[in-house]
Specification:
mainly beta; Porin; 14-stranded antiparallel beta barrel; two-stranded antiparallel ribbon; 20 strands; Long-chain fatty acid transport protein
Length: 435
Amino acid sequence: MQKYKKLLFATSLCIVCIAPIQGQNTNSPYSRYGYGVLEGQAVGASKGMGGISYGVQGLNSNPGNPASYAGVDSLTFLFDIGVSYNKSRLSEGSYKQNDDNGGLDYIAMQFPLAKKFGMSLGILPYSSVGYSFGTVESTGSVSTKKVFEGSGNISQLYGGLAYSPIQNLSVGANISYIFGNTTYTRSLTVQNVSDANQENSYHKLTVNMLKFDFGIQYALPLNKEDRLILGAVFSPKIKSSGKINAIHSIGSSSGTLLESDTASYTGNLAPTDLPNTFGLGFTWSHKSNLVIGADVTYQNWEKVRYSEYMEDQMDSKERFNNRWKFNGGIEYCIDPRDRSFLKRMKFRGGLNYANSYMNVQSSDGSVSGYKEYGATVGFGFPLLDPYTRRTSYINLNFEYTNISPDKSNLIKEQYFGISVGLCLNDLWFMKNKFR
């Protein structure tokens, strides 16, 4: 089994070396706005339970609530790595489009640092941009084709520490480096004029900032078989600035560059803030084979500053919405201590809902958002080490997400996703004993 673990670990490192964090995880036209589509922070088993994290302790690495790190025992080292694939289906009236995306999703490690102290390190996705769409607008006898394209990711590299000052209570904090860039291009072409020029614009936003998360968990024993864990998190508002690069050019119908200039604000710093975030959650566990939990998250996006240079046709009053997100999930295992593979296997499911943090513009010029509904089904396949009796898991999750716009003339989206994660549970600095 030790050789098997080393092989799995080596395979994981190879994936890290050859796959970019997150790849492109979306083809949503809505990612044109704000920072793109926000990604979930759940890893491992939590992904299969609807994305819950605030009251989760001991299931896997849990960067969603840094207080959970203190729950790792003094001999345990957890290493989580995950990859994902999703197929998107976009529809607007009779028009339909299918796309495939995927890549390395996350890496997280959790281990004891000292008595009553736990630590976690890793890298997670924060948001993703990926879209390509066009419109044709007519004025009299003149038709203008507009094409919009964008790509990029914003990731977070985090490190966190947790401490348990008294029995059943733990507090923790993460510090994260948020980094990445997103690019946005637009081209305008007059279609029915033979010698018409094409106008192009290119914008790139580079983000670099520090984010802080504070968490607390309290484990309340209800009886010999039941335990309730209450959790809360708070992330203070970030005031930061990103770098803007922009190029505007004009070309002929034959492709010859006629005029090019770097916008006057290229290299300028523009506001790239993040909102206050508040989260509450719980998990209830029965014996050691059933876990049920739920989370609620609120983000105060309305007063967040964002770069006006990105030319998203929004102003500060209509760009963002305050966001609510709800997650719920369940995990069941027949008997985690049994030798039977099936009885140690874990079965998971979950639901989630959120409103959009950004508004989008309809073809009629009106501004509105969308609702996001999701469901997950997951399985944890056990890998038992016969020498240490520790169990690692391969986590397989199936996800479905439905994007329902508030306006009927906006694009509807569906995502069908598969994610595979490896959670290695090994001994932490265990010394061999010789007789």
